[in-house]
Amino acid sequence: MEFGMFFLLQYPEGKKRDDQVFHEAMEQILAAEELGYAAVWLAEHHFSGHGICGSPLLLAAAAATRTKRVRLGTAISTLPFAHPVRLAEEAAVIDILSNGRLNFGVGRGYQKQEYEGFEISQEESHGRFYEALDLILRAWTQPRVTFEGKFYHTYRLAVLPKPAQKPHPPILVATVTPSSAVFAARRGFPLIAGFGSLAELIESRTAYAQTWADAGRHPEEIRYFLNRRVFVADSVEEARHETEDSLLWGNVYQGRYAGPVAPGEPEHPEFMGYGPRWDRLLQTSGDAFFDEWGLLGDPETIVQRIQRFEQTLGVTHLMCNMAFGWIEHAKVLRSMERFAREVMPHFQHSAISDQQSGKSRHPGI
Predict the structure, then answer these.
(1) pLDDT tens digits for range 248-281
(2) Domains in the chain, start-ordered, CATH in brackets?
(3) CA–CA separation, 359 vs 224, rounded Å?
(4) Which of 30, 12, 80, 319 lies closest to 192 in space, CA to CA?
(5) Residue 328 and residue 285: Cα distance in Å, rounded?
(6) Which residues of the chain have a pLDDT value below 50?
(7) How far is CA 2 from CA 37, 140, 170, 224, in A?
(8) Dihedral sign, CA of 342, 345, 346, 350?
(9) Which residues fall within 8 angstroms of residue 96, CB to CB, at 6 or more apart?
(10) What are the helix (H) ranges across 258-364?
């Protein structure tokens, strides 16, 4: 198993300044490089404090100039919100400047306010996502691109530059429901998961593995990326004390303001299956709250929980979200350091095994 750092760049107004959020994130990215994390993963969100990085590629470009080893991933680039040709161009530049270190995680997004803010209908989310992904792949691999879709049209378009990695940077697909997992498996893309209970994650992982096998692929080639909030302390009690307010704020904020529908509205047909997950954001409490939404505690406890994920889900890469809510920057850095020193060494054997089996073509993917 490999480990990366995930950055949502949350902005709890009144607790941190917006510029502070970005400067601290960059320092944490540099720390991830020094501490031996395989990758950093940058989220895209708009119009709320849930996440204020509107362009993960722009942040990745800044990180590319200040790092040498760590892979730079989007988690995710929301394809319906930008023209795919522009995304292909910008991603290729970053891949070149980073000497082939880009991981391109993609998704269609889910937040109602984001679709409304960009004046895009949620009913178009699947169609725009599928077309954009196909067009980006062609832009990276074909000298001239002709594309005739419902939303995008090009004729013999020379999209330059081409990315450094051939045939293109690794593409990963973010999923919430089993149907998205099935799409990723059919196309042979690694899976990014993290939103849901263990039972829901197992359901999607099972659908992914079955579709993967039906396509004639070997199960040893599956690459499964799990996103979880992480905080390392001397004890479970200390970790809960340090993170409880930030966790509650994040869940309540997302549940009320950053969902596919407003609270109380029926599920949107383009986002079926999301409703129960959002309801649980507002209802989970006590031990179940901490067990479901984070890896929080002393190193031994965290190692045991990661081992359970490894056994039940076949996780090959853990995305660690440590800078959530308003946790102090110094405490995030300390948690990162302790995780690297006291947790990651327990999984060196699985990382070596993954590389030997072909699960990891290069570190961080």
Answers:
(1) 888 878 777 777 877 677 778 787 776 666 676 6
(2) 2-357 (3.20.20.30)
(3) 9
(4) 319
(5) 23
(6) 352
(7) 8, 27, 16, 11
(8) positive
(9) 161, 163, 164
(10) 275-283, 286-293, 299-313, 329-342, 348-357
